[in-house]
Amino acid sequence: MAWFNCSTKSLVIFFIISAIPIAYIISVERAKPTTHVYRYHSSGWFRECAKWDDLHRRFIVSLFEGGVAQVQMPDGHFPDTVLEETLLVREAELAGNASLGIAVDGRRNRVLVANADVIGNRYSSLVAYDLSTWRRLFLTQLTVPGTGDEKSFANDVAVDEEGNAYVTDTRGSKIWKVGVNGEILSTIRSPLFTPKEWYKTFVGLNGIVYHPNGYLLVIHTFSGNLFKIELKKGGVVEVKAVKLVGRGKVLLFGDGLELISATQLVVAGNPYGGRLVESSDEWETSTITGKYAGPAYRIATAATVKDGKVYINHLLGMGYPSTHALVEAVFSPY
Description:
This protein is mainly beta. The chain is built from 2 helices and 26 strands.
């Protein structure tokens, strides 16, 4: 998910784009892609996250200008057809905040969306909507403006089997636990979430997923550390750093996460596009086994699985009208 505050984000985007010749970008955009790509027209330039909603056969997309949209998959879709983004909900109450990480909770027919004040880091919230009617189920403010709360940046969200949500705070490197009806239950903190090196603290906890065996996996963007958070009875948690073995020792600039099986995790993020990480011991240790290099100038931010295939969401749209790309990630050996 989003891995920087506004000023850092602007600088990173500027340097990435300025370092890549425009002619190269044009040639890549016009070339036949090596893997499958879903392209869609959009009303905005920035799309932080897209998740596949299998029941309704569509991608749910978060809007950086605030709100949620869908990209419907029509019957008989042809690969070269450019799809259309359709706005589903935008709330005046959330105006001025970006919609970022998404979790589709199919069991309860709802979607959860993290929202944040990208510029000032003064507001963070979690909102839930019914996937059929788009009726708001709850809106939970995680920090409240004007109350002296610390600055925060709600970034990504995961849901456990009981419907509890876990929202990462990239600014404060903590995790809010929110109950199924929107009540704040607790805040997960750990000294492990704060690297010793000061320059690794600028962008903290980011992508998060819930593992079906009852624990969380979360990435720290600037340190590259992957954490396992055991969720025990009575609200007790145990935080461990997942040890990476093999060639890759850290997952630097990791952003969005997606589990594709109990033993395989996709880490989206630039400049790598996507990395495949595997574990055979319940994520006590792991190994980077695959890599995917997509269009780096579009900035990979999230991953999702559709019909058994991994697709990488990219932040930046290109052209006019803005065209976004969900690119199939085919991993080569790391």
